[in-house]
Design a protein that fits this description.
It contains two helices and no strands. It is mostly helical and 51 residues long. The N and C termini lie far apart (44 Å). Zinc ion binds next to helix 1.
């Protein structure tokens, strides 16, 4: 059985319990707006210089 390292939420830095997925946490804990803002922020960093 492979041991998976704990997942940390990229928004609030919470460490998730193994029985919860990041998706569950995002949906249950954060608003849609928070998640979208994070995704856009990450895309900006990744795509810096391409615009
Ligand atoms: Zn979180």
């Amino acid at each position: 059985m492979a041991f998976e390292p704990p997942v940390t939420c990229p928004i609030c830095q919470d460490t998730l319990t193994p029985d919860r997925t990041l998706e569950d946490h995002l949906v249950g804990t954060h608003t849609h707006r928070e998640v979208v803002r994070y995704l856009l922020f990450r895309r900006e960093r990744v795509g810096a210089g391409t615009i």
